[in-house]
């Protein structure tokens, strides 16, 4: 497997990655810094109890007590904020890899070189995986460090499980954006497809927790496999991770196959 | 002679058979049968939109044929595309380069995609074309970007150069530099496939040209033959009496003579020798001659075989 495209992609993205790292870490730090001031706030502690179940599921990870350590981290970071940031990153990068290069007109020259298209796609995915890995590590490290500083007691294994869930979820939707842009040209459409599916997955999982008829269908949503089973309390959902990994592999394969068979647009 | 040499001699640098590509209903290129020999400089001429770029992108497997097939050095451009592209240097017609990297950054990357390219080869080409390699591509002028594209095509000294309008965007001096490079590589036994919409751009380097029009290859000719049939528009401004100018109508190869106001306009096909000798009798003040338009060459070419 050649690695030139992988290395070049990482080189190109190193500066922008730095900004993503700083932004993500700053947001997390800010959120955690507020924990000492709300820890003993009974109004906030009861606040979630009065919310409709679906809203609580969507925005607070289903937590009843927002001042408990897991309740605070789920509602402030893992239910929405961290996945949102990582998904914006991966969907943008995934759509940029093929569709973005193509729209800028630079794909033509690259594919005229002795590079197999499927290798080109897979290397872009591996670069994306490496970048997501880095952001996941930043997420984990900042939350762990912040929690320690403000005496927010949470097990490191649980934090790791939740962080990996965020990373795998983001990587899946990055692969979806990559596939959408590889199968048919158009960066905006690739972003719209992946972002639309991501929002649908998130809403569906929240609704399914409140609507009994939908409950059985929760495993349809990638969000359920990554974060819907509350890894911050329950630990790693191994089966869910395996499903996410398989789904990601399917989309990467579709991306490779899709680009192999179509015309490159000038 | 060993068998390898025999097969190498009989293998064309480019060979297409019934190569056809439609974009929906629109014809890109249809039933192209073309053979470009190894070591040849082949000009691929046609007006914009005639199918030149479609042909080139089919050869590089960037787009796929509707039917027919093509081979580079005997390698099928679909099934053995990777090997075919390894032998090829390509300059796109509409060159777009990533803006944020430097010229040397991009060229090194493209070189790595080919295995390895000698850094010295890049430096020498940059010197000849007068390009500063350390500059960001986004800050380069159109002509300088074109130079980066030229270096990318030439730097690995490929067996086959496929150049789509290589001199576009370059000033005349740099156009000559690029054409000199083409000549050198041809002298070293490389094959060059050069597209252009102007005969002038290829006539001094190409040995043969193919003319495409509306997606069809309409002629393949030695450049010398084509130039004999090329029509030039000539305008002669006379300093004095136009008496005797009527005789210009009888000069071989001269058509469409119009006289008036001390100015003679006419078309001359092929050699201008007879015309110039006849003009010598007249009080010529200025003489201007336009480069032949490809379309006019085409028309004159077909004026002989088709009844218009």
Provide a brief overview of the structure:
The complex is a heterodimer of chains A (266) and B (308). Chain A has 266 residues and is mainly α. Chain A has helices at 4-33, 35-38, 42-47, 53-60, 69-78, 81-104, 107-111, 117-149, 156-183, 187-210, 212-215, 222-228, 231-234, 238-261.
Write up this protein.
The complex is a heterodimer of chains A (266) and B (308). Helices cover 79% and strands 0% of the residues of chain A. Chain A has 266 residues and is mainly alpha-helical. The model of chain A has no long low-confidence stretch (mean pLDDT 94). By secondary structure, chain B is of the alpha/beta class. Chain B is built from eleven helices and 14 strands. In chain B, the strands form three sheets. Chain B has a six-stranded mixed β-sheet with strand order 6-7-8-3-9-10, sandwiched between helices. In chain B, a hairpin with a 2-residue loop joins strand 4 and strand 5 (75-76). The longest helix of chain B has 16 residues, at 172-187. The A-B interface holds A 4-5, 8, 12, 104-106, 108-116, 263-264, 266 and B 53, 57, 60-64, 82-83, 85-86, 88, 90, 92, 94-98, 100-101, 109-110, 112-114, 149, 152.
- Extended strand count of chain B: 14
Over the alpha carbons, how many angstroms does the gyration radius of chain B reach?
23 Å
What is the CA–CA distance across the termini of chain B?
52 Å
Biggest beta-sheet profile of chain A = none
Helix content of chain B: 25-40%
Structural class of chain A: mainly alpha
Shape of chain B: globular
Would you identify the regions of chain B where 5 or more consecutive residues have pLDDT less than 50?
A: 1-8, 304-308
What is the number of helical segments of chain A per DSSP (H or I, 4+ residues)?
A: 14
Number of helices of chain B: 11
Which series of helices and strands of chain A comes N to C? HHHHHHHHHHHHHH
- Average pLDDT across residues of chain B? 88
**What are the segments of chain A in which pLDDT stays under 50 over at least 5 consecutive residues?**
none
Whole-angstrom Rg of chain A: 19 Å
Largest sheet of chain B: 6 strands, mixed
Secondary-structure element pattern of chain B, one letter each: HEEEHEEHEHHHEHEHEEHEEEHEH
Amount of beta strand of chain A: under 5%
**How do the strands line up in the largest sheet of chain B?**
6-7-8-3-9-10
- Greatest chain-chain interface? A-B, 19 and 28 residues
Global morphology of chain A: globular
